[in-house]
Amino acid sequence: MEQLQMQERVIEMLRTVYDPEIPVNVYDLGLIYRIELNDDCTELAVDMTLTAPNCPAADFIMEDVRQKLETISGLTRVDVNLVFEPEWDKDMMSEEAKLELGFM
Q: In whole angstroms, what is the distance from residue 23 CA to residue 17 CA?
């Protein structure tokens, strides 16, 4: 599968993962920092963060991301890494997310 097509499928899947406390998906919240596929699109690495380092739903969100990404046909390995650099802030959200949450 072509890199761009697989990247689109990954983003589509990430848009189905929500923080239980926020009605916006993790991708549009700006929590996904890196999506990297190997050359044959079988291995995926994702760097993501949380809205706060002490987020009570951290384990749930991370597991939901991993499980959903593992359902994408063609992927044989999925690594989800939790990072806190750079620190997340609301400017990282998509325009849609800002509108949904009343920041615009």
A: 10
Q: What is the pLDDT of residues 50-95, one digit of tens each?
A: 998 898 999 999 999 999 999 999 999 999 999 999 999 999 999 9
Asked if 68 and 58 touch (Cβ cutoff 8 Å), the reply is no
Range 3-87 has CATH code 3.30.70.20: no
Instruction: Calculate the CA 29 to chain-centre distance.
Output: 9
Task: Quote the pTM value.
Answer: 0.93
Q: Which two tokens stand for residue 24?
A: 């916006």
Structure tokens at 72: 């994408």
How is the chain split into domains, by residue range? 3-87
Among 49, 29, 18, 25, smallest CA distance to 90 is for: 29
